[in-house]
Fold these 4 entries.
Entry 1:
Amino acid sequence: MSTAHQTAGPFWHLIDFPEWADLLRADGPNAGAQGERITLQGTVTDGDGALVTDAMIEIWHADPEGRYDGAFQGFGRCGTDAEGRFRFTTIKPGPVPGRGNTLQAPHVQIAIFARGLLQHLTTRLYFADEPLNESDPLLSLVPSERRCTMIATPVIPGTWQLDIRLQGGAETVFLDI
Amino acid sequence: MSDPIPYARAIPGTQPPLDSPSYGSTHKRAPRQEPIRAPLTLTEATSPRFALPSHADMSVVEGHAAMGERIIVAGRVLDEGGSPLRGSMVEVWQANAAGRYHHARDQHDAPLDPHFQGQARVFTDDEGWYRFTTIRPGAYPWRNHHNAWRPTHIHFSLFGQGFAQRLITQMYFPGDPLLPLDPIFLATADEEARNRLVAKFDLDVTQPEFALGYRFDITLRGPSATPFEEGHA
Ligand SMILES: [Fe+2]
């Protein structure tokens, strides 16, 4: 039996290190990493559409070659601000091998922790311009009308937006892995 | 490349539900739709490794002892298969002895302690052991219902070998009279699963003339017993 999850509560900022939202920071593990520099941003809202201003978002993604065992550490952590926004700076991941010799479209794993979440939520961010989205093994499990909740759209070149809705209309697709 | 072995899914009742009627903050935050059951891939079977300094003693800040009862907390981090997690980062945070967090949003009318920050980071050794020194935290009120108080607890954040093992939980103290009243603790239906969140007083962890010791072991998800059950999806 695995240990029960418990909410991160409202005071998780004691383990918030704001610089971790910049995966390319000069004194971090990826200083000088080569690749297409991108910004990932969005807001978190609840079932009333109210901004969630006390959530902790973590991301985990592959390097531009689709590897997790290279030098690049695709991990970031960012709190939502007073407008419910999060924002990461990183490099764009490449396609990642899937199960059974399949190929997954480039994606970013997202974990959401907050007061009121007794277990964290898991979802993914995909990129709207990727032809591989059409054949992605995970996206194909998601009802087509809900796939858009996992696909980020470009705001300006290099800046991708994905809003997370915890509950209600256009609720984000969450994953059980 | 061979496919990663899926992690076992939780035994029903041993994890808290997202929607918990007696915990008010879940009402507007718990998703209404069932999650999509997805296969384990490299993305979830790999995890960050952290080359960061440890900070294992919360009981002293700049040479000054924090107020309160000094304690030691130690335990092992294993997976459900019994394998120790080596080099895993364990982050902990907590309220001070008076029940107040060193945090701008905590407005509880209890004193702050300039010599207590309430945050530590340690790494497990080759046998999965972690250990830190701190101050026994105080209970604090919250607004969930009339006269609601959180039992004394320490927040724990852990990384395993796969991002799907990621865990944030809370450690409670034995004999706390607030435990049978706490909606967060009680949200997990299975009594044994709840009791595993309660540390045990341990004379072996206790250090003579220094501090009482508590043992708190943590189990992350382990390999599924039937690895081919969900090999294709
Ligand atoms: Fe707390």
Entry 2:
Amino acid sequence: MKKFNPYLSSSLMVIVLLMVWEFGARAYNKSFILPSPAEIAFTLWELRSVLFLKHLPPTFLVIAIGLAISVIIGAGLAIWMNASKTAEKTFYPIIIASQTIPIIALAPIFVLWFGYTIWSKVAVTVLITFFPITVSAFDGLRSSNKDLKELMLTMGASKKDIFFKLDIPSSLPSFFSGLKVAVTLSVIGAAIGEWLGAQAGLGYFSRRMMTQFDGAGVFAPIVLLSAVGIALFLLITLIEKTLLKWRKAA
Amino acid sequence: MNNPALEFRSVSFQYLSEKKKVNAPILTDVHFTVNNGEFISIIGPSGAGKSTIFRLVTGLEQPSAGLILLNGKQVKNRLGLVGYMPQQDLLMPWRTILENAMLPLEIKGIKQDQAEEEVLTLLKDFGLEGTENSHPGDLSGGMRQRVSFLRTILSGSNVLLLDEPFSALDAITRLTMQEWLLQQWRNLKKTILFITHDVEEALFLSDRIFVMSENRISIHKVKVPLGRPRSIRDLSHPEVVRLKEDLIDQLRPRVES
Ligand SMILES: Nc1ncnc2c1ncn2[C@@H]1O[C@H](COP(=O)(O)OP(=O)(O)OP(=O)(O)O)[C@@H](O)[C@H]1O
Ligand SMILES: [Mg+2]
């Protein structure tokens, strides 16, 4: 009887929690503070066209641009640090230090710099997501087998051969782990960015509902944000599974 | 073609440590000649410098003095000229068997379909038919070593260096692989240098044995008094048994002195 759906236990847990929440909220009966799951679902349905057509696209754009920039900067930095000891010594400490900055506190500065354009939100997203991508790509590149490198040298391999045929494939498992962390963080980054000031977006919408004491209206876009995060995570997992087929399922 | 396949002329070597400090020499004034088509085993205690000789031949290291000649010519950049098979199979887990074996051809810039054809024929000869789309993780240790050997052959060089290729295999598989290797060597007409810790393995396989001593004084060259083809039973020949005991005595570190 071990062949249950692998998500069965977590699904059950979620259902139990939702039920507790539903009954708790009904008993409490102040929906502007604690809306019940049913109310949130209802609001989500009611506002579907506004949420999906007006506010989801700008948020998604922020996430996509932010992640793309992070992957380019992160992979680029990782490759550079792997190729040059000087670059590693220069950038690695700075990258670590950048993570000790409370990004939420820094975010208003981006508004000062970029105004209420999309770029202030993208900047927050990049700042949150480039770290796991850079570090995991760098660790992955560094993990390539030195004996294999020497073997390739004895075959007459060039630096380019070693980079493309050894370093890159060796780095992929680690890179994907970092990317999975980054996509979930990117949703948070976009939401924070939009809270600070925007004309549209799920984070912005959630905040506007807060000022109107519409509890369910606050939660509905958050549910959607979380769904976007899960969808992105699953997408990356799918790409990973196709690309790294050789890895045995543990 | 009458040139020796490999020749060391008074080769000396020492590793340079990180801080450019000079370590104790590993090889001093080493001479030897390996003829075309010969099977040579190198035995010696751990740390004697056996693998170091291979690193010198492949060009991963350069001698601090002396000459290394390949097929009668001195070549400074030897990378890509000798086939080297490391102790671990070192197959790339993300590549299929076919892609792994194709690696040296890819590096040489040979066209994809031509390389594929060459590998597929060899896979058949090596009893690895049908594994071309598997990944190394799906194969047994003996099969992986065969793929690794195949990849070494595809380097295209006439000199093959095998560094303890069978030491990780169980006794039975190892015997099968030894017989298989001799058969391949006969068919391919390559020159093989073979490092091993196992005196019996060296006696069974080789024409001559190079014995390296722990004190790194000299390389002792011993001819194996057996014809070909040979079977594992030939090793109980009294002359061979005496030689074996003699070799083991040479390898064992002297406790007295
Ligand atoms: N890259 C290196 N830098 C410095 N010293 C090294 C290096 N590689 C090997 N050595 C040293 O050189 C000596 C000879 O090493 P080598 O690997 O050639 O021995 P070996 O005969 O192959 O031993 P084994 O049977 O254990 O494989 C050893 O003392 C080793 O510590
Ligand atoms: Mg060795």
Entry 3:
Amino acid sequence: MSEYLVNLKVNNIPVSVKEGTSILDAAKKLNFNIPTLCNHPDLSVAGNCRVCVVEVKGARLLAASCATPVSEGMEVSTNSEKVRTARKHVIELLLSEHNADCTKCFKNGNCELQDLASEYRVGDHVFIDLVKAKDKILDISSPSITKDDSKCIRCQRCVRTCEELQAVGALAVVKKGDHQRISTFLNKPLDEVVCTNCGQCINRCPTGSLTERTYLDEVWNAINDPSKHVVVQTAPAVRIGLGEDLGYDPGERVTGKMVAALRHIGFDSVLDTDFTADLTIMEEGTELLTRLKRALVDGEKVALPMMTSCSPGWIKFQEHMFPDLLDNLSTCKSPQQMFGALAKTYYARKKGIDPKNMVSVSIMPCTAKKFECVRPEMRDSGYQDVDYVLTTRELAMMVKQAGIDFMKLEDEKYDSIMGNSTGAAVIFGATGGVMEAALRTAYEIVTGREVPFTNLKIMPVRGFEGIKEAKIMIKGVKPEWGFLEGAELSVAIAHGLSNANELMKAVRTGKVNYHFIEVMGCPGGCLGGGGQPIPTSPDIRQKRADAIYSEDEGLPLRKSHENPEVAQIYKDFLGEPLGHKSHDLLHTHYKPRKRY
Amino acid sequence: MENKTLKKIDLIFADYTSSKYKVLEKVLEKTPDEIINEIIDSGLKGRGGAGFPTGLKWKFTKNEDNPVKYVICNADEGEPGTFKDREILERVFRKVLSGMATCGYAIGAKEGYIYLRGEYLYLVPELEKEIEYFDEFAKKLNLDFRIFLRMGSGAYICGEESALFESMEGKRGEPRNKPPYPTVSGYNQCPTVINNVETFATVQIICKIGSEEFKKLGTSDSRGSKLFSVSGDTPTPGIYELELGMPLTDFVDNYGDGDTKAVQVGGASGFCVPRKHLKDTIIGFEGIPTGGSMMIFNSSRSMYNVLHDYLEFFNEESCGQCTPCRVGCQQLLKGIESVKKGERKPQYLDELKKLASTMKIAAKCGLGQSVANPFNSIVDNFREEIIY
Ligand SMILES: Cc1cc2nc3c(=O)[nH]c(=O)nc-3n(C[C@H](O)[C@H](O)[C@H](O)COP(=O)(O)O)c2cc1C
Ligand code: SF4
Ligand code: SF4
Ligand code: SF4
Ligand code: SF4
Ligand code: FES
């Protein structure tokens, strides 16, 4: 965008903005809000809903303010009679095509269409109800995503999300005119197409058309069943997102209150995925060092760069799109699934609970984890390792349903022996976090010294740049790691699948040479996960990231290998990283999937 | 008002008098600016319907600072009742190629494309033969301009210029936001001149007879002559080249069957003119412009059915992306049905007219914006037929 300033008037008030600015943003600068539906800060401009139209003096047509750049001398009116009439028509038209059963809708209370309808008080049914005449197409095939066409306003945010941010293209516009709708390749159900279950489309759907497949009832039933011991784990990014759905501004850390709320709700053991995040670092760090040793010392052909495997959306993406690179994926399960396998073995045994009566629930910022927990490989405890996955949003609903005044809760602590964690685990929730945690530990294992970064903050791997790179010189190693002396460890980090896609193309063609790659399926990492509070935007994600890093800095332990409960589980149960037990419970394999 | 009467003209289909591409050869002796000024001076406006001044379009494109530019000939001819472009392609295709090459030379484009309506597939062998010949000729003239054929897929919306670019780029044919206009960002986001088949043929004619001669035809707002596709209740359906600016009465006197009730000028997206307004309606940009479609209805026709057909057409052919058009078309159709059935009061038609007026200013592209033309003109003039 150029630096050249354009002068215009909005509702008779002069304003100067940079050339290329939309009328919408120029108006916003003057604190005039124009309603929008198809527009989203993460996506390209569509200009299709037409709810944002404004009047430009001298123009025959109204202008879609989101899609029209300002020009010199322009005189814009955002609230003229023409504008109000058109806007009301647009809302009425959308509603005439919409199955507006708000009271039964999952998005009731957090729906952009509902907000608009309430703002404009479109009450009397001006136009003919078109819903009745149409087939209500409901797709509940996916364990993660529910798609209800009768709630769709065709804004195409989901299509743009899937294509632009995720490079998946599972959703597409099909047919035209009154038959136009959002569908999949050959109209197949979502669980039969390339959809990675990342849920990014849900985060940007303004209505209840795309929502997570909810398991609230199942979880409440388990809690209410006295014969069941219900354990719950909470992912790193939940604690910095949950507050947004419970009255806080973005960026509030609510870890202690969340733990208290989970107890109030009635979970029998309140545990932390962060514990298995630390464990992941032990396993994955060791796996990386082993791969490097086999490559450098034993001259074996091992798959390098090694790639992280904590993000199930990313895993499914890789299985569909880059099946030739599956060996590069770390064999480590995601922290959720490590947790599940240990809950029904280690935890059950230690606490004297029959795993048969244990129900394992996880609270995730993620919808792909709902799919992951039903993968047939994920039953190493002898049972389904994780029974139900709820999103951050679903947990907020539980809190409200339980009548808990969240803001007034006193902080509480997780239960032991799978509830302790370090700052290294917390930062798993941000892009670059796994890398940073792994480096903190691996560097220290190899050299016996802390990573050479002030206050353990490895800045080159932080931030929201699409693909980040870093190099770390390894010097002064311990004798047993002599082969790494003077080596330069080269790493890369991608977040959001379209960035991952670019990085993988470069890896596949040999254009780049890394040892280790971290990929998170969602923009910003888990903090921007498909199960996080809605709305999302670069601003909101930045605030969540800030919260994550300050949570890390505030913790007494910030390196995974220092987690005492991790040390204990190796001593009491697992033996050593990559040992037999680990192999059985904590590692997995992948399978190629077709693209079409 | 300049008083014109109906006058048949024979320029577009006139035989080639000189050797092949003689006109083009001569044009290339001029500078690009000279050519553009000549076209501007001729007052030629686009023959595809919207009527943008052709010379200006070329000038804007020429002035863009981009090494890659394109010339595109819109041969999608999807407007109901229009069938003149096909005739041009069949009979005087060379004039179109000549016009495109003139444009390419004038704006500095090296490639031209003809986006051909899917149904015109049968024309391809002939067209390709002529294009091959053109290529050789261009080489001889040292003209760095090649022409390619692209097939459309049968969607009406793909005739809209920006949807056409999307379609050519292999994407779903959905209109883009404007601005930017094609002259700045068209095919492959490069500056592009897109003109109708007839516009390019007319360029060749202007180059041949000169703008002074061309300007003698038509009115100050509507220079020259153009082709009309005459259909409906007429004893003489067909394609006629007529001077612009005639009153509609003249037209009906010549082509009607003596019992004309109304004329739909400009196809489904045009205006319906009832008998009582024929006299004071001029065919041209000062009156009612048309891409050429003239549908004549006599007293045996139900205007309800006519409107119903048009609305069904728009319902099907709307790309569906924008709310006013996608849902508005459905509401207009369902609306007149329910008034007809007595489910809604006749006054509901006024609500629908307001809706159509919103569509006219709030829809994203020309399709949705023009539905109000037939809707309001038919409802206003034939209200009883819609209600009872
Ligand atoms: C829905 C729609 C369909 C159109 N179809 C055609 C078409 O088939 N042929 C055509 O030349 N122009 C068509 N147009 C107009 C084009 O968008 C464009 O204005 C025209 O090709 C420009 O050429 P001209 O200036 O020579 O008329 C259509 C416009 C709309 C909105
Ligand atoms: S999507 Fe929104 S407007 Fe529609 S039913 Fe749900 S809450 Fe109501
Ligand atoms: S869940 Fe992700 S991959 Fe699946 S359709 Fe939505 S955005 Fe695309
Ligand atoms: S599913 Fe949601 S995001 Fe996608 S087009 Fe429909 S309303 Fe928009
Ligand atoms: S006006 Fe109609 S055809 Fe044009 S973009 Fe909107 S929906 Fe598509
Ligand atoms: S928000 Fe501008 S057109 Fe949808």
Entry 4:
Amino acid sequence: MSQAITSSITTSGTTISNRHVLHCRMQSEPAGLERLCRVVRVRGFRIAGMSVECSGEHFEIALTLEGSRPISMLQSQLLKLHTVAEVVLGAQQARSVA
Amino acid sequence: MNGAQHILKAFQQHGITTVFGYPGGCIMPLYDALVGDVSVEHVLCRHEQGCALAADGYARASGNLGVCIATSGPGATNLITGVANAFQDSVPLLVITGQVPAALIGTDAFQETDVLGMTLGIVKHSYLVDDADSLPGILIEAIALAQSGRPGPVWIDIPKDILLTQVNPQAADQQEREGCESAEPRTDSATHNGAIDKDINELMRLLRAARKPLLYSGGGITLASAEDSFREFAEQSALPGVVTLKGIGNPGRHNPNHLGMLGMHGCRAANRAVDECDLLLVFGARLDDRATGKPETFAPNAKIIHIDADSAEFHKIKAAVLTISADLNDVLRTLTLGVKAQPLNIEAWQKQCRTWLTTGGFQAADNEEALAPITGPAFVRQLSRIAGDDTIISCDVGQHQMWVAQHYQFNHPRQHLTSGGLGTMGFGLPAAIGAQFAKPGTAVINVAGDGSFMMNAQELATIRRYRLPLKIIILDNQCLGMVRQQQELFYDNRESHINLDDNPDFVAMARAFNIPALHINRTDQVRRGIETILAYKGPMLLHVAIAREENVWPTVRPGGSNRDMMENTKPAKKKTEENAA
Ligand SMILES: Cc1ncc(C[n+]2csc(CCOP(=O)(O)OP(=O)(O)O)c2C)c(N)n1
Ligand SMILES: [Mg+2]
């Protein structure tokens, strides 16, 4: 399924991987973080950094991600999780070559 | 009322009358509650995969929620293929499993598996219940969630002790009053608001500006219960149209502008039209790779307009110039008014498409010779002519599935039950069982392959037990035909482990389950064979010996472009004999 996604940017054989920061707010259910991380992995991103705070009924999660696919596609997939309330794209993306 | 009794109460409150299950240790409290319960019919399948796929078939045929139940450990793992199948095809399912008692979770207890963890990728949502008082609310939410927006399976894993715990009645009352507040609305943007009107106007503008607009529809039409409004729009607009595997039946049998299924095993006319169109109107489809072929060369000249309940599908495979996430019924009805008021001016394009169809539709010569061996396509065409208009066909996976998709004339998408996204061999028989429970008065036929049939053959016992009148047709080519075909075409004809020439005697096998059966192998027996099983009032199996080397044509090389379709070629000489195991 994922092979069909054709948006990775290739220049002279090198895949350019972008760095993104995503802030997510989700219900603090026991499997919440697993759900989130699974979607990140399956949709083609690596977690370069992660911080989680539990505030009352919610997790506040900051993810630093690397990947060559459009980050908006990941955002919309994360928003489909029933317990995810918000996904905000954070700090300006820095580019790095993988 | 304990947790288990609350589950039955929720079934009753939500009109759930049929569930498919299999008992075991940790789910026993629910089975105990079923004793003497008359509000729900529990169907005992003979394998949990059968339960899940039967629930899936029930949901597909009826449009209602499918429910399956199993015990912890092996019961839950056996459900997984069926649940993944429902997930891939957006089928609403409620899955209930028992779990080891809460205090034992994490001790590697007998029949403990991390069901929540291992199913995260195949559910729309899931719960591990940790408090009996929360169960009523979870049930309400799960039932709503499975059916809302883009439907899918929702799994509730319930420790045995919680099934036995008395639920606080005040807590239950309150949750039931609050209802499903947290469940999603029917679509991402359920209200027909101003923003959508603006988008529809823009859609109309693009449609009028296009010279070669094409309608592309998928399984989302049925999921949105938009069959009627789709058909009305297709007819009133007179747009040439193609369908995906799951969209088969959307335009009905008689739309003259309908070109057929596109994609890997689609017809040349449909793929040609996609290749040439300048506007592609995608309704309720996700542009999956079996349909699009190589995405870079898919609809290369077209602006794409994508209308779907799930906005995460937009721009995933192909960028769209306009996307609308709304109730498909609203959009289609508004568009129909538009084209009625001012018809589209696309005669040249319509004519062109119809010309393509005359030579590029699904070609299959009907066998004329009485003594000739039966071929899959000719058999399916005959079946399509003989079976009644509302007959439900439940397919397995392989060549026979594609022959049904290509050559059976479906009147409505809910008549065609097929495992699209997961391609699950063994789907057909249990799904047919589910469909027969959903539609007791309708003829249901499982068209199986000889390989697929053996994957859930134990469900013959379920058919017998419940005296289901469904029919089974095995198209027996004595091999895993679709794999053989790919080995022939793309692996230099090196056959590897596809041979099934030592299949069991399927007729004797059916009879062992007290299901009568017939065998045919010649063209002149086809009509009689079909008529005989359809006329029989109980279940019956027709074993059809078909030619081994027949291929599904046309075809596209996996990963190739749909415009590079391969047409029927002579079978190459076999290179290697497979080692008989
Ligand atoms: C559970 C499962 N295992 C393996 C496959 C791969 N596969 C796809 S089609 C096919 C052959 C099916 O054989 P049969 O049911 O006899 O149908 P035919 O192609 O011969 O019509 C196989 C093995 C699959 N789709 N599902
Ligand atoms: Mg076969």
